Amino acid sequence: MKLQHLSALLAVVDHHFNLTITAQHLFTTQPAISKYITQLEEDIGVSLFERRGRRILGLSKEGDRKSEHARRMMQEVENIRKIAQMSSSPETGLIRMATTHTQARYYLPARIPRYMAQHPNVKMQLFQHTPAHNAKLLADGQVDIAICTEVLSDFNGLLAIPCYRWNRLLLVPHGHPLTEIPLLTLADIAAYPLISYSMGFTGRGKLDQTFRQSGIHPNIVITASDADVIKTYVRLGLGVGIVAEMAYESGADFDFTAISLAHLFPSATTWVAYQKHRLISRYIFDFIRQLSPMTRLRFREGEILYEPHEDRIPSYDLLRVNK
Q1: Helix residue ranges, H only, the chain
Q2: For residue range 116-141, what is the model confidence (pLDDT) as tens digits?
Q3: Which CATH architecture has domain 3-85?
Q4: Domain 168-260 class?
């Protein structure tokens, strides 16, 4: 059994059993991938895949178990490489980061430049996807960290550290009737067409839950994963918008009145997550610590030591003042 064979197995799984794409990813040929898989199955004495003719349909039950072991083995190999890299070049490397539009557009720009000024030999790759896809990329080891509000806790093997708490804002044109109400209710908001985030994005689940628990059925006419898109359609007069507070920029959004909805909806927390059994480079730890400045974090031989404290999660308002 060779590491190359295990790598081929995991690549086939990660690329949804498409051997052509797997071969392109590994810079080899499709017959070579088939050969690696055949040799691996012969070495361990079981069939790893369900097949129809020569076509691979998915993992067999035994293949599912073996792929989990293979992933752990390859992670240990990566850890060995990481230890060598940490010893030879502790401040040089790459951070592969999966995140959402909201975090990449509104939260990270105030933090990445400062970090890169302190770590000039570190490069970054940002992958912008849905929260669920971000979590899967992290669980599969294709990125080093993931930053988002939803889903991260649903995956085994991930550890999440809180970055900040945030609330929602209602965006309406100046002079809108809702600006005349001193303290909005859910019924007040639901009287107008709503534009907000798609399901699975930026705390949408808690928003729906709050309306549902109050017995109110809002008319959500447009949903989007991107706050800029939400604001565009509010400007077109198609409804009032509910967005995360970090998506409101007083300069660029001068044509809106922003009304806090903190009294109506529970706050949400943005998290940064990493793989539990994967060694972390010091420069990645430094970035995580910058994302979670009020959390007690310690670094020891590639591991992050973290003690959860709910009262240490800062609000976005506090971060904005101190950025």
Answers
A1: 3-14, 19-25, 30-44, 61-88, 101-102, 112-118, 131-139, 186-190, 204-213, 227-235, 282-291, 316-322
A2: 999 999 999 999 998 888 988 898 88
A3: Orthogonal Bundle (1.10)
A4: alpha beta
